Amino acid sequence: MTTGDYITRKFQSFGIDLSEADILDVSLSSGLNTDDEVSKENHHPVTVAMVQYIPNLLLRASSFTENKLSMSWDIDGIKAFYSMKCREYGLEDNLNSNKPTVTFW
């Protein structure tokens, strides 16, 4: 499976459909080639690139209504995935603004 396909399918499991521009943003910001095959050797950088892109995805509307059509997305799952992977990979969790902070003087 190519990196681009892996990224697309991984986000689809959370109900998020990525555009080609989204996949391009993920790959360009991390130096990934979307045509490379996902392997044990590159799984970590691919996952980190995906995790770092999640805050951009959460800027989208979580619901909309047009005429009689109403759609909404549950974003709690992707937020939980993001926080878990940030802890796992030692990344800064930019979404958790409720963290207590301690300042030493």
Describe this structure in words.
The chain has helices spanning 3-12, 20-30, 43-57, 76-89, and strands at 63-66, 69-72. It contains four helices and two strands. The model has no long low-confidence stretch (mean pLDDT 86). The radius of gyration is 16 Å and the shape is flat. Helices cover 48% and strands 8% of the residues. The protein has 105 residues and is mainly α. Helix 2 packs across helix 3 (43-57) and helix 3 packs across helix 4 (76-89).
Give the helix/strand layout.
Layout: H1 3-12, H2 20-30, H3 43-57, E1 63-66, E2 69-72, H4 76-89
Antiparallel strand pairs: 1-2
Helix pairs in contact: 2-3, 3-4
The span between the termini is 51 Å
Largest sheet composition = 2 strands, antiparallel
Counting DSSP H or I runs of 4 or more residues, the number of helices is: 4
Low-confidence stretches: none
Topology pattern, helix = H, strand = E? HHHEEH
Query: How many E strands?
Result: 2
Number of structural domains: 1
User: Structural class of the helix and strand makeup?
Assistant: mainly alpha
Shape: flat
Percent of residues in helical segments? Answer: 40-55%
Radius of gyration: 16 Å
Q: Name the strands of the widest sheet in spatial order.
A: 1-2
